[in-house]
Amino acid sequence: MQDELEQLQHALPQVQAVLTAVEEGAPVVVRKTALDTWLWQLRDAVENAEDVLDELDYYELQKTDKVRGILSDRMRMFDSFVNGIFSDDTLKRLREAVKGLGRVIADMGSLLHLVTGFYGPGAKSQKLEEIKNARETSSLLTESEVLGREEERDLIVEWLIKPGDADIDLSAFTIVGMGGLGKTTLAQLICHDKRVREYFDLIMWVCVSQDFDVTVITRKILQCMSNVNFGDKGLHVLHENLKRKLTSKRFLLILDDVWNDDKMAEWEKLVAPLKFGQRGSKILLTTRMGSVADKVAKVMKCKREPLNLNKLEESDCMSLFNKHAFLGVRPHDYKNLQLIGEQIVKKLGGSPLAIKIMGGILNSCMDYEYWKKILEEDIMKLQQGKDGIMTILRLSYDHLPANLQLCFRYCSLFPQDHVFKRKTLVNMWIGSGLIPQSICGRQRQPEDIGKEYLNLLTRKSFFTCKTSDNMLKITKEYFMHDLLHDLAQSVSLGECIRIGGDVVGITIPRTVRHLSIEMVNLLSIRAISNLKNVRTLIISVKEYNKHNALHVPEFMKIIKGFKKLRLLILDVNIIHTYKLLDALSSLIHLRYLSLSLEDVVDESIKYDGLTNESIEYDGLTNLVNLRSLHVPYLVTNNIPYISKLPFIRKLEDFFVREESGYKISELKNLRDLRHLHISGLRNVRSPEEAIEANLNEKKHLKSLSLDWSTYRSNSAEADEQLLDNLCPHINLKKLHIEQYQGAKSPCWMTGLSLINLTSIKLMHCKRWEHLPPFGQFSSLQLLFLWGLHAIKQMDCSVFGSSSGCAFPSLKHLWLRDMPNLEEWIGIDD
């Protein structure tokens, strides 16, 4: 067995390298012919080998109950073979994995010539280096200026703000053009125009896309106006709310990416409540079809007002191309490339999307032969129109490194117009195995590499990014153009599949690795029960079906059969949901688990005559490879011995109890935590016990919340000693303390050791009398004090020395419910 394990360890990296080279080097057209079958055989062999090694790691973790040094030291497994720790089934699959790699290795030589030479001289090595050298500062920029379209913008703005006809309360204007010409960008430009914002009382933006559902669109309009979630309210209730909110308001409604040109009755339903707005209200639509403009004019009984968007002017095309192709360098230093660039731009049909994408690809390799090869062998063959644009996008995709291609294909699991959150998407890539641990090192975590991948895809215009800062909570949202979403779907066939309706009757290829499904009936899962290679499974059951409760056992049984799962997301709404958790304990490869069950968990437990505290989800601790766990707090609170999940990154509600399995010492070995919320600190039996949490050794911890969860405590002295012993690592950035009943500040705050703190929140700490010198925390940007009833005085000794500058970085200061605060001495200084 030792020889076979060594063979597997030796052969796997080589085969993985070949797989990457083939996927990166062969254009999609080649892969769909000569290489397709062999590539799937190669992937099967690689993934089977990965699964076996992963399983060996799993058993070793369970056997030793140790956290570090296992994944890199497989020699420890030989003892386990000798001692019979692993099952005969595991040993059998180890032998099969070795044989499988051997078979594909034998076929490699005769096929690799198909992909040799696809890239120009120097391109491959430069693109591999690009992954290492990606810079955050340049990759997340959105378009700072829109090139061209001034004439079109002014024309539409003038129409919007001019008084309407006396007999027409509501009118519409339609921007028509094929995909990639910049219809949405033009609408956004108009939406933010100062003249438009001053003229209208309300401006609302709704992305419609191909599914023209009046209820959904109306709900989105209401949410734009009030930020209120109208849930599953019916159309009548939505209409009444919308009518009331629009009365006496002059509004602009932008309906982006409209496709419906035939459902007259649906259009009439949508427009009906909009007519209650003030005269002069307008609708602005974007669409690829002129027939949409005809339909809207007919429904609203107004004049047809379309603008057929033409391609960009040549000078604007070149400016946009230079902006992306020569990003980070001076174009004048590359005059030979500029000449080729001019010829390339002439073949891109004046499409801003195509120009940005092609510019981003060329920017990755500033090599004359590479640019010339793309011009002569690819660009000169392009046709004009939509097919030509899609060919450009396909070509740009083919020139991405294989790892970026995979991450891009993965995004086809999401619906069109989906808003991607950076952390969520990166963690899903990691969870599904798109960013393997083998390419990481001590200095670079998978999260860092995932961010670099997303930055690169954004820099190459496969995504656009919007950044918002709300009270220091920086949110990055990413958007994908609908043509790029179409591309992601077309290049991911057989690998990534999303089914928006029920799965029954749909043929799914057995090669699929990543699958997203919406279903109404739980038994629909039977249709995918034979897909044994699935690594990502996203299931949404949002509509209530009273029969689903009867089907839970079979549903759970089929879920248990997906033994290769790395990521599982269940968004279900059924009674007995909490029992689903029992089915997950055997999915030992899981890295990412998300269950949207909160309300139903509570209701289903009560339905069975149980209490929340009587349910223990101990089976989840079998999932020792978990990195991301997103479950309701009722579940998190009842996972005993959570220390068995050593790689977990975020623990949102660890509730301390006195019984075994729930003590604060369970946090000791969770060294990879980034975010930690500890509640129930009143249940820590002694201050010394808090030391066992090892908070000061958690160097990756960025956010820490300490909550006593009650106004009652044993004594102020006990709380003070306890808080002193909960000293976090110096790298901590955000600290939240709630319902602490001590009078003193902890020594690690008064000692100013936490030099990286950017946010401090102290809430309902009613006995706290003496605050630390917050003004001397040089990185502090937010200070939130609420319910500190014992504070009487603030002065410069609290908020910084009189000789230095207090609060050098502070942006937000909140003081609330501090009834005994009498004065703030030195504030004038």
Describe the structure.
The protein is α/β, with parallel strands linked by helices. The chain has 6 domains: 2-114; 160-308, Rossmann fold (3-Layer(aba) Sandwich), CATH 3.40.50; 312-399, no CATH class; 403-487, Orthogonal Bundle (Arc Repressor Mutant, subunit A), CATH 1.10.10; 500-628, Alpha-Beta Horseshoe (Leucine-rich repeat, LRR (right-handed beta-alpha superhelix)), CATH 3.80.10; 649-829, Alpha-Beta Horseshoe (Leucine-rich repeat, LRR (right-handed beta-alpha superhelix)), CATH 3.80.10. Strands 15-16-17-18-19-20-22 form a 7-stranded parallel beta sheet, with no helix packed on it. Strand 16 (675-679), helix 26 and strand 17 form a beta-alpha-beta unit. The longest helix is centred in the first third of the chain and has 37 residues, at 28-64. The termini are far apart. InterPro entries: Apaf_helical, Disease_R_plants, LRR_dom_sf, LRR_R13L1-DRL21, NB-ARC, P-loop_NTPase, Rx_N, WH-like_DNA-bd_sf. Residues 413-488 form the Disease resistance protein winged helix domain. GO terms for molecular function: ADP binding. This is Putative disease resistance RPP13-like protein 1.
